[in-house]
Task: inverse folding
């Protein structure tokens, strides 16, 4: 039997832990930084809200395309996208942390995936020429970048004039980027909103270059 005093102490401890966790998340949110490699196990957990098949449906990778993944981390989505563009397509994968790049390289080798080109690169200064990619995507990455506007400019620059951009976001990521604000910032660059799968708290949104912005409906 737990005494009333013990239950009060447990409740106080739980409250304290909750507040500390909240404070940590808020501090992390106001100081964007890459998810540490030490936390890689968390990003490898199954994702019921932003699934691989949802990304495939909205990105529509086609055989032979040249694609870019920014911030692939350990490669949760990479192998699936790479296989969809085989046999002649290439998926370039740029992550700012060398440990993630190495991890991805090993994972792709172990999976037998040969059309991925992992490199260390910063979204704010992408190491690719203008008009290179048929499509680019980034999942749970944008909020970690201190200068998101510059990263969006860079993505716009490296996309072909008719390229596609897909952004994936989901709570409880402390760096979560909401859909409405994101849509506004991307449309300002001349890309048109095409579709969204998921919900407001976990979604993939697709934007198309070379199409004038339309009022756009969303797929829930
Ligand atoms: C939360 S993880 C998500 C990884 C992967 N996209 C996924 O969904 O599993 C964020 C990744 O973005 C990378 N990242 C953060 N800032 C970046 C930047 N400025 N340029 C490139 N990659 C970045 C981090 O190193 C990390 O691998």
Result:
């Amino acid at each position: 039997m737990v005494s009333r005093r013990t239950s009060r102490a447990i409740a106080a401890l739980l409250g304290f832990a909750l507040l500390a966790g909240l404070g940590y998340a808020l501090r992390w949110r106001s100081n964007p930084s890459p998810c540490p490699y030490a936390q890689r196990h968390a990003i490898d957990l199954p994702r019921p809200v932003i699934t691989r098949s949802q990304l495939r449906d909205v990105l529509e990778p086609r055989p032979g395309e040249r694609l870019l993944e920014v911030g692939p981390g350990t490669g949760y989505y990479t192998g699936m996208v790479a296989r969809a563009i085989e046999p002649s397509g290439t998926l370039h994968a740029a992550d700012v942390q060398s440990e993630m790049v190495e991890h991805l390289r090993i994972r792709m080798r172990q999976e037998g995936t040969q059309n991925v080109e992992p490199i260390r690169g910063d979204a704010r200064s992408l190491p690719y020429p203008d008009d290179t990619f048929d499509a680019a995507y980034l999942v749970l990455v944008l909020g970690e970048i201190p200068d998101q506007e510059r990263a969006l400019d860079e993505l716009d620059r490296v996309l072909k004039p008719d390229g596609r951009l897909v952004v994936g976001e989901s709570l409880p990521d402390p760096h979560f980027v909401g859909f409405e604000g994101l849509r506004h910032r991307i449309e300002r660059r001349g890309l048109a909103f095409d579709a969204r799968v998921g919900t407001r708290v976990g979604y993939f949104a697709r934007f198309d270059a070379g199409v004038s912005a339309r009022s756009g409906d969303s797929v829930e």
Notes: The chain has seven helices and seven strands.
